[in-house]
Write a structure and sequence with these properties.
The protein has helices spanning 3-19, 63-66, 136-140, and strands at residues 22-24, 27-29, 38-39, 54-55, 75-76, 81-83, 92-96, 109-113, 127-134, 144-145, 150-158, 169-182, 188-189, 195-196, 201-204, 207-213, 222-228, 236-241, 245-253, 259-265, 275-279, 284-299, 309-318. The two termini are 32 Å apart. The chain folds into 2 domains: 1-30; 34-318, Jelly Rolls, CATH 2.60.120. The chain is globular, with a radius of gyration of 20 Å. It contains 3 helices and 23 strands. The protein is mainly beta. The strands form 5 sheets. Strands 6, 9, 10, 12, 15, 16, 17, 18 and 22 form a 9-stranded antiparallel β-sheet that branches. Strands 3, 7, 8, 11, 19, 20, 21 and 23 form an 8-stranded antiparallel β-sheet that branches. Strands 1-2 form a two-stranded antiparallel ribbon. Helices cover 8% and strands 42% of the residues. A hairpin with a 5-residue loop joins strand 13 and strand 14.
Length: 320
């Protein structure tokens, strides 16, 4: 290795350590740790404002199921959050005292729980979901190119098994709204029936989910993080959640069009050791970041509440 090349590699390697990149056989993989860089104000919430509230403009939307948005959309008092137009917001959104073990000094967090997750006044008896969306574009002026390396971080409280909905399956999601160019494989159809051809720009929603499996008989309860998705659109198995309590989840979006996923128990800042995986979900090369949001899922039977989920200190960052 030449002196110049050695010096260049040393500088890049040092930068990799600073940013949480990994160095293998002389190659640097840009896996930027979520939370690196400059915090984007008004693109998140710490829920410390005691007057925080949410206006539910019912009936909520269910465009994904019946093409009906039913505006105007619900909105938080600080205009940081709004009802997801595809599915509607969770039925119960309340500022609460953070559960034990949360961020030191925090006095507020957000409880999310839902009952009527499908089409209003109808019961599907299937798992359905509601969305709470961060109002990123309205509060910051638009999209963020991945050339700026945006990232998002959220603290999530995993409740104890006795509070779980009695259903095995995904219960919670931390996801992003992104746009990218489809490159892998034949034309694909999304849930709305739109066909995306290779090279076309389209919207997609990567993210991380928590799957709950309540115990039965001698079988103990278990929880696991799932990552959405590999290039074929299949969810990938992430770390098991051994104990209930606070977890920190994060995603970063790098200029190479890849998405990087991180997860760690506790509420400390994420590090390179918390890396889970990297992917081009659904075969897309990511070009711009639009927003992030949370899913709450339950069995839409008209009587069963979802598992209660609590989030705190939701943040967005850019590297430049």
């Amino acid at each position: 290795m030449s002196v110049i090349h050695s010096l260049r590699y040393s500088v890049v390697a040092a930068l990799a350590v600073l940013l949480g990149w990994s160095v293998n056989a002389g190659l640097v993989q840009a896996q930027v740790v979520p939370g690196t860089g400059i915090k984007v104000e008004k693109a998140g919430d710490d829920f410390e404002d005691e007057s925080w509230d949410f206006t539910h403009n019912l009936p909520k939307g269910s465009k994904e199921n019946d093409e009906n948005t039913r505006g105007p959309l619900g909105m938080s008092s600080n205009r940081r959050w709004f009802e997801g137009p595809m599915r509607g917001q969770p039925d119960h959104l309340k500022r609460v005292k953070p559960p034990a073990g949360g961020i030191e000094g925090s006095t507020g967090a957000l409880l999310m729980q839902t009952l009527h997750s499908g089409v209003p006044r109808l019961v599907s008896h299937k798992p359905q979901q509601d969305d709470l969306v961060c109002n990123v574009r309205a509060n910051t002026g638009g999209f963020f190119s991945v050339s700026r390396t945006p990232s998002v971080v959220a603290r999530v409280f995993i409740p104890p098994p006795e509070q779980w909905e009695n259903r095995t399956g995904v219960s919670f999601g931390f996801r992003a709204g992104t746009w990218g160019r489809f490159y892998n494989g034949p034309p694909r159809k999304n849930k709305e029936g739109k066909t995306t051809k290779p090279g076309e720009l389209d919207e997609y929603w990567p993210g991380m989910f928590v799957k709950l499996s309540p115990g039965k008989g001698q079988q103990p309860s278990s929880a696991q993080i799932l990552v959405r998705a590999n290039q074929r659109g299949m969810d990938m198995a992430g770390p098991m959640i051994d104990e209930p309590g606070w977890w920190t989840l994060g995603m970063s979006f790098t200029p190479d069009g890849k998405i990087h996923y991180y997860a760690s128990p506790g509420v400390d800042a994420l590090t390179a050791d918390d890396y889970v995986t990297t992917s081009n979900p659904y075969g897309f090369v990511c070009e711009r970041f639009s927003t992030y949001f949370f899913n709450v899922v339950n069995q839409d039977d008209g009587s069963t509440w979802s598992t209660p989920w609590v989030i705190d200190d939701c943040e967005m960052f850019v590297l430049r």
